[in-house]
Amino acid sequence: MRLEAVVLPDLGTGPDEPIVVSHWFAARGDIVWEGDRLVEVVVGPATFDVAAPRTGRLRKTHVREDDRVVPGGLLGTLVVIDEEGPTTRWEAPS
Hints:
It is a single chain. 0% of the residues lie in helices and 44% in strands. The chain is mostly beta strands. The strands form 2 sheets. A 4-stranded antiparallel sheet has the order 1-8-6-3, with no helix packed on it. A 4-stranded antiparallel sheet has the order 5-4-2-7, with no helix packed on it. Strand 4 and strand 5 form a beta hairpin. It is elongated, with a radius of gyration of 14 Å. The termini are far apart. The model has no long low-confidence stretch (mean pLDDT 89).
């Protein structure tokens, strides 16, 4: 099992500007695909999405909605699905 940290990237904010977790798009145990929106943060009037760094299962969220975070801070942990795992998204029948 390989783990991948989900960290808040540098958003170019000032050191005194609070960054707040606004919304998790995935819950613990959900499978997310590399590049999917994983968590939304708010800085002043702007919102930013943090994408999943790898395809995997969200193992843990280390912060909750309304928590303050800092660039480089740990947001969550993914269990990486290796290259032999699923390679396509499942689409619900219409």
